[in-house]
Design a protein that fits this description.
Layout (H helix, E strand, L loop, with lengths): L17 H11 L2 H14 L3 E3 L4 H4 L62 H10 L5 H12 L11 H12 L5 H11 L12 H11 L4 H13 L1 H5 L3 H8 L3 H12 L22 E6 L2 E6 L7 E3 L1 H12 L5 H41 L1 H6 L10 H8 L3 H10 L1 E4 L2 E4 L7 E3 L5 E3 H13 L9 H10 L6 H10 L5 H4 L3
Parallel strand pairs: 2-5
Antiparallel strand pairs: 1-4, 2-3, 5-6, 7-8
Helix pairs in contact: 1-14, 4-5, 5-7, 8-9, 9-12, 13-14, 14-16, 16-17, 19-20
């Protein structure tokens, strides 16, 4: 007897073709990664090669059934218009259609800012481990501990788990006591504070390594030992009473603690890995005339391999039409079509980038003239999408991964998107302007009596911004400003 049932499933509203997926991936990668992507395509497709494209290839007889026919009118149409916003869109790319801003080579456009690559934190620690003169057994324990450290330099994995890792992974039998003994040695490595199991231990390790102002250091150690919770909550009156300190002693000890590094692995200048910053766009102010150009790395010269084109022509004119010849024709035609598609997709990428950036510049023209952030206008993804008749998801992909070099710095494109806040005059101003006003209020407040969110709300309203307390709290968190209690100073 058959049974009836209802099953609920989710299906995409639009099926993406391989070409559309290819274009999406090309569009969202930054300039720094484009060259790698092109090299990959050159390696897998022998019909594609570097060099200026020959004009006669554009109108050749091999254009029939060209996979790019759908993009012939690209200047007036977005190739992603028929794709649902949700399709192939990473979750972090779109937030309610709003985004918060949360060198000379051969050519000016190829300018980049190189920063040298230094040893990683792991490599630096392993190097220091090698100087201890350990036997194989203890060296293996040390390497296991170093490999278990988080990116910020903490050991959050239990010692018991490390004992088990060594037993099952390396057939090395040890004890928690032996692992802790090795950990204590690693905690004397640079940067200071490395290998701590929590913030309190991290700060104590650094204090115990300091040899100046021993009396103040001793007071700081007493505070962390007996009043760590009160310290984190800035309950200074309780600390003075419990430890028995006067105002000057407390201020000196707190000053020593607050200068310590809470993340020794994350921001260690000795071992941190550096990267290159390569802008996607170059904007120059030429006598108050803004001139935009793409970084030349976005405009590589690619063409169809002439040998493959001649090969296809030879096969097509061949009298012999056996199976082997037909397979050869099919293979060569497929490679040429793929190469032509890739060349055109690169060109479409350039056009999309320029159309999007030009629209952003036009919208934020006053800012781009002199870099004055007070001239930011409220702008969301939809504003630019409507302006150039493209899908919001297309604008999101461009804005999330690209940057522009201006006369006053390099900015990620998402920096220019912000919400609007109403003023008493009825005009909308950028949330970035409001954030700057908020930061100014916090910078100038009395640190002995920092302003609460309610007081910040009232102060901003006095400046003419119609803003709610919950919005003040949101902007404060986005700026990385702690609550009033944690901003309190002695």
């Amino acid at each position: 007897m058959s049974k009836l049932g209802i099953n609920q499933t989710q299906k995409l509203t639009t099926t993406l073709s391989p070409q559309q997926i290819q274009f999406i991936k090309l569009l969202q990668i930054p300039t720094a990664e484009l060259n790698t992507r092109i090299e990959e395509e050159l390696e897998i497709n022998p019909a594609l090669e570097e060099g200026k494209e020959e004009e006669d290839m554009a109108d050749s007889e091999y254009d029939d059934d060209d996979p790019l026919d759908d993009y012939d009118e690209y200047e007036d149409n977005d190739p992603l218009d028929d794709i649902s916003i949700e399709d192939y869109l990473n979750e972090e790319e779109l937030h309610g259609y709003k985004m918060h801003g949360d060198g000379n080579g051969q050519r000016e456009e190829e300018r980049e800012i190189p920063i040298p690559s230094l040893p990683t934190l792991n490599e630096g620690l392993l190097s220091q481990l090698s100087f201890l003169g350990l036997d194989d057994h203890h060296r293996a324990i040390g390497r296991q501990i170093i490999g278990s450290l988080d990116d910020d330099g903490y050991l959050r994995r239990p010692l018991e788990a490390i004992v088990n890792d060594l037993a099952f992974g390396q057939n090395l039998i040890t004890t928690e006591e032996e692992v802790e003994e090795m950990l204590k040695k690693i905690q004397y490595f640079d940067p200071p504070g490395i290998g701590a199991r929590d913030l309190r231990e991290c700060l104590l390790i650094q204090l115990k390594r300091k040899d100046e102002d021993l009396e103040t250091n001793a007071l700081a150690i007493r505070i962390l030992d007996s009043c760590f919770e009160e310290f984190t909550k800035k309950h200074y009156d309780k600390i003075k009473k419990r430890v028995g300190l006067d105002e000057d002693q407390l201020k000196a000890a707190i000053g020593v603690i607050t200068k310590l590094n809470p993340k020794p692995g994350d921001i260690s200048t000795s071992f941190a890995r550096r990267q290159y910053i390569i802008p996607d766009f170059i904007l120059v102010n030429n006598n108050n005339k803004l001139e935009l150009s793409l970084n030349s790395r976005n405009a590589p010269e690619l063409k169809i391999n002439h040998t493959y084109a001649e090969m296809l022509d030879s096969y097509s004119k061949s009298v012999k039409k056996d199976k082997q010849t037909r397979e050869a024709v099919s293979f060569v035609k497929q490679k040429i079509d793929a190469a032509k598609w890739f060349i055109d997709a690169i060109k479409q990428r350039q056009q999309t980038l320029l159309r999007t950036m030009n629209a952003i510049i036009e919208y934020q023209y006053e800012f781009f003239l002199d870099g004055d952030e007070s001239k930011f206008k409220p702008m969301i993804l939809k504003d630019i999408a409507d302006k150039i008749n493209m899908d919001i998801s297309t604008i999101s992909r461009v804005a999330n991964s690209k940057s522009i070099q201006t006369d006053f710095g390099i900015y990620p494109l998402k920096y220019f998107f912000s919400e609007g806040i109403a003023t008493d005059s009825g005009e909308d101003v950028s949330s970035r302007e409001v954030k700057n006003a908020l930061k100014e209020l916090v910078d100038n407040e009395d640190k002995r009596k920092p302003l609460s969110d309610d007081k910040l709300e009232k102060a901003l309203q006095q400046k003419g911004y119609k803003i709610a307390r919950r919005t003040v709290a949101k902007y404060r968190e986005q700026l990385g400003i702690p609550v009033a209690r944690l901003r309190k100073e002695l």
